[in-house]
Amino acid sequence: MTRVLVVEDQRTLAEALELAIGAQPDLECVGTVETVELALPLARTGTDVVLMDVHLPGTDGIAGTSLLKTAAPALRVLILTGDPRPRLLAAAAAAGAAGFLTKDSALPDILAAIRAPATGPLLVAGGTLAALAAVPGDEPLPPGTGRPARPAPRQQNRGRCTARELEVLRLLGQGLGPKAIAERLVISPHTARGHIKSVMHKLNAHSQLETVVTAIREGLLPPATGGCPDA
Fold first, then answer.
1. DSSP assignment, residue 4?
2. Are strands 27-33 and 2-7 parallel, antiparallel or unpaired?
3. What is the block-wise mean pLDDT of the chain (231 residues), using blocks of 10 residues?
């Protein structure tokens, strides 16, 4: 039985999620709370997965993800937001989130994310990632949810990706992590990680997720149709 905590200040949505989760034979909703502060004691005592809103009273969901992961490292936090932006996704990944979904995601997608293996890659719905990639630019994040603004990616570096790096980038876009990429290309995991770090540098990205989003926005990858690698 997977035990799920919902952290959401919109009562109608919170109650709908509670009912939907409770109706599943393999899932149990241990409660719904409106703040990270109320979630912390519950997360320490028998919770497996947290569905986390971003815009909450008090501590926001991104900072809250970091707090929950510090309190309970094995906990899986799934960000459920009505405000999908590339930098918000990257901040969620950096905070340790296990998934990034929009509030209008289909219920089967949310339930599938809850049931996903704890050791799997960070989950991002394909439609969500494609929508993020289509955004022409990043707006400032809410206070406390991300890093300061950074310079735009260097166009001259994008053209310097080697054929192998582009192949690695394509596999990243298919949702493969470093180990799976190494197996697919018959190279060592160390070499795969080296290619990934090089591509991240050339796209001026801070995470593998941000690398994929940037690559889609720049036309180096087609719009996503599946998951994304962990950051």
1. E
2. parallel
3. 94 90 93 95 91 94 94 92 78 87 83 84 68 55 43 51 90 79 92 92 78 77 51 42
Lookup result for tokens 């001026």: 204
CB 218 within 8 A of CB 158: yes
pLDDT score at 26: 94
Strands (E), the chain: 2-7, 27-33, 49-52, 76-81, 99-102, 123-124
Q: Are 43 and 69 in contact (CB under 8 A)?
A: no
Segment holding 73, helix H or strand E = none
Specify the amino acid at residue 124. V
Question: How far does Cα 165 stand from its chain's mean position?
Answer: 23
pTM of the model: 0.64
CA 138 – CA 132 distance, rounded (Å) = 10
Residue type, 182: A
Q: Please name the residue ranges forming H helices in 135-206.
A: 155-158, 163-173, 178-185, 189-202
Report strand pairing: 99-102 vs 123-124. parallel
Cβ atoms of residues 176 and 192 within 8 Å:
no
DSSP secondary structure of 51-67: EE-SS-SSS-HHHHHHH
Return the amino acid letter for 205.
A
| Bridge partner residues of 51 (DSSP) | 6, 78
